[in-house]
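Today's session is about reading a structure prediction critically. Students often jump straight to the picture, but the first step is always the sequence itself: look for stretches that repeat, for charged clusters, for runs of hydrophobic residues. Only then move on to the predicted structure, which in these notes is written as discrete structure tokens rather than atom positions. Here is the chain we will use throughout the hour.
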Amino acid sequence: MKICSLYGVGFYYVPGTDMCIKIGGWVRAEYAYGDNGNFAWGWANGNVNNRNTNNSTWRARGYITADARNQTEYGTVRGYLAVGLSTNNIGADNAGNTFSSNRAFIQWAGFTFGLTQSFFDFYNSPATSYWGSFPASDTGDGGWMVAAYTAQFGNGFSGSIAAEMRRTTSIINSGTQVQPGGASLGYGGFQAPDLVANLRVDQAWGSAQVMGAIHQVNSTYYSGAAAVSSGHPDDDVGFAIGAGLRLNAPMISQGDYLQAQINYTQGALRYIFQTPNSSYGKVEGSELGFGVLSDAVYGGTLVAGNASQLSLTTAWNVNAAYEHFWNPQWRTSLYGGYAAVSYNDQGNRILCSLLGAGAGSGAGITSVAAPGCNNDWSTWWIGSRTQWNVTKDFYMGFDVLYSKLNSADVPNSVLPVNVAGGTVIGGNAVTASDVDNWQFRFRVHRDFYP
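Below is the predicted structure for this chain, in token form.
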């Protein structure tokens, strides 16, 4: 095959055509402890912390990539595909749940179509941490469906506008069981994509971006998914805004940099909680920390005259990381962040009425929260990863992460049995309390693209 130098190292002409293609890939093996049996779901996703909890997890991943390009009168057209193996093994994996494809897109004349990364994202979680189980907007690992246009303004400035697959957590109503898990629970059918836009600059000193997203919040019916005659709340509009910054620091050491991103949202919390995308809950003995993750809350019925409209949930977060290069082979990162979720008065009253057992009463607009019932919650985390690049395409590393959940509160600190993980410990009442977690991860990685 003839070498194609138009697009960089590793491309070859497909015989008999003007198309150039590069075949690459990578393979990885990992072990983790303290991750609740899943690298992405998170340590506080229904973590019962008993004899049935998976504290150890194996993972093997490997992808083959194909990058094909050729010229048109409007510029380069590119097709990119990444397919392979991705396990999360606690002894139950099989051939049916290991196939993975996280990239399949076409780029041409400034347009991008297909499975790639959201144009809202800036902070790169995998760049400075092996963990993806803390709040961030980053869709890079799993990919996201987009149809976008990017305009280049010169001198490193660009702007993008995109229609993207909607990002959903849950919508909570009177018929919803409030517990960890259940992503997209309570949402109606997919009607409209999210609208995303950004303005970005990339220069020698680093990069910066401001971005925003508009999201349709559309629930199912007042009396359940199939109860058409019961009516439903009006659709609402959620949004997310953010800003990101990367500063290169060669004055400290060659390769050093700082990256950070801050986000604020109402009704579109997956722009903060991309993974894990579920309510938080972890048991520690007779204590349980919990936090309900939702885009909106509603309740009541039209018949009873107490039906409410959607109360959008508010959240904000910050991610930050610094990576230091001790030398070309050794590097260490320090990373951390904070995320907070809050409910307005009506949303909190409806959630409290769903908790029962003295936390609240009524339904919809007649809901009442007992004194001391507060569903606001937050989480923070700090971690460090050290990596040894044995060669330019082979490395090993170790990552340790500490996380803390500042739990929601209920009256007298006694958690009812029907909320946020209470049912997963056999129906026994537990005390609501802040909880924390340590987790550790070892990785071996080999790239084999040119």
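Discussion point for the tutorial: Residues 177-184, 417-427 have pLDDT under 50 and may be disordered.
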